[in-house]
Amino acid sequence: xxxxxxxxxxxxxxxITAQNISEIDSLQEVYAKSTTSDExxxxxxxxxxxxxxxxxxxxxHYIKKIKVINKNGQNKSALFDEYLFDSFIATQKKEDAKxxxxxxKASQLALEMKNPILEGRAYFYKSTIYHYLKxxxxxxxxxxxxAEASFNKTDTITNSTITNLASIAFIYNKFNxxxxxxxxxxxxxxxxxxxxxxxxxxxxxxxxxxxxxxLNDHDKALEFLNISxxxxxxxxxxxxxxxxxxxxxxxxxxxGDLLKAKKIFKESLKDTSNYIHEQNFNENRTIGCxxxxxxxxxxxxxxxxxxTHLNYVEFxxxxxxxxxxxEAKLEKSKLFYERNEYKKALLxxxxxxxxxxxxxxxxxxxxxxxLLQSKIYHYLKKTxxxxxxxxxxxxxxxxxxxxxxxxxxxxxxxxxxxxKANKEIAEQQRTIKSLEGKDxxxxxxxxxxxxxxxxxxxxxxxxxxxxxxxxxxxxxRWAAEKEIKDLKQSQLLFDxxxxxxQLTDFAIHITEKNDLLExxxxxxxxxxxxxxxxxxxxLLFFINDDIHKNKEKSQLYSSIDNKNDSFYNDLTxxxxxxxxxxxxxxxxxxxxxxSKQISLQLNIAxxxxxxxxYSLRKKLNLSRGENLINFIKSI
Length: 635
Known about the structure:
single chain; mainly alpha; 26 helices; globular; disordered N terminus
């Protein structure tokens, strides 16, 4: 969690401006030599950006100077930056509504100036407010995609362009939409070779490293994080280098290389102490190091050392860094559980649940807490409380899945709107080029008349040689077509094999889940419990119903695997553009299942099934009058 806090700091800090800000002395010298009002305004803006995260009072002082010089707003670029600064100050004061109002003014000004770069920056800044302050990730994605569309209107690649792509990947990754996350990772990396600010490049690699760490691709994560650290070291950006090294330590911790991770966090503590003047950085980083040193000690069962570090984190993060405080409490709960100090663990859990439920955004932590709580009640032989905790655990898990599904549906809608807008822009550009081309055609017609005879002779010669080589070309083409056919067949076999592995994994998962439910059910039956209690009846009904549904799902997928391999193969060959989920739903439709049945069998919302039906019609190129079910059955 701590590394994400610093990702926020760097994306928020450096994405707004594309300037490569020099040291303050040089900036002051440039300002002193300025003669015109535009030169003075530009210098003052650079100085203001320097103080943006150094000293708020100095920042406000220079903003006032800018407004005095540009009092009538004649310098629109400077006025745009004024709005951004005003929005930033409002966010510092937690005045979210005012911050958004100022950003909207900046966006409107960019539209009036017909400047897509400034427009994109305004949208991106607005997205950061929704992302990190209001924590409305759907809105954040909406404005990030608007920023991307604005940046796409120009061939110019800016720091904000690339940072925006990296942050879109970060949001998709947060909601487990790995396909889109990887798509935007590729977009980001494809632009990182451009001549952008090395600092921005370093932060983008840092972001990509975090995403790959979340995807558990630790080697790729270390590759990107090492690049980030080296870039910051080359540019003498010590704070950013420390942050990259800290993230490297987290990846080694996840890999299980505890000795290496411990060494990195110890060195990070030492390096951080050299930046006492950077109070927020120093405090946050120090707490983060203690948190991971506590985690490492807990994994080594060095409970006293772990408790010392975790107590430090809990005490120093209270009312300041909610994410760190929650992680520390969770780790302490695990520690007391491992030491069989169940009462202490339950007290810690009670405090943690109250803290997490108040915020409502730490569902992963809440899920882990309820699972741990159910284990403790199991050992204490408090069956009612154990079952209640497990029920809460299942509820949080379902709630999390529901949020992820809702977000992915919203992101699909936004993607559709963005693609439509991009097509309209492309169509307008083609129209403009077509009109420009008509003038050129008149001139070219005269030239064509002059060279027509020459072209006829050349064309005859070409035909002669072309005919001579035609047989040779056909042989090459036939060989290539055969190779493509063989490759498609190999891919088909691979897809079938993959599908079988997925079904095996699903069956194992169902069996394990049913075993657990049967175990809980047997404990309820063997316990001294009043079966006339409505709560107990409901719980037993819930367990029996879930076991029955799991068996039906297992049989269903087995049926699909046994009966529809031929259909699945034909569908893959004829329509390779379909993804796995669409193929699965097509198979269920062929078996005659309704949308409601499909939603229950695949554990997705009914509206999601309807969306997939729409997507299938589109990819299968069906007209309005054609029936989807009949078409699928005809394959």
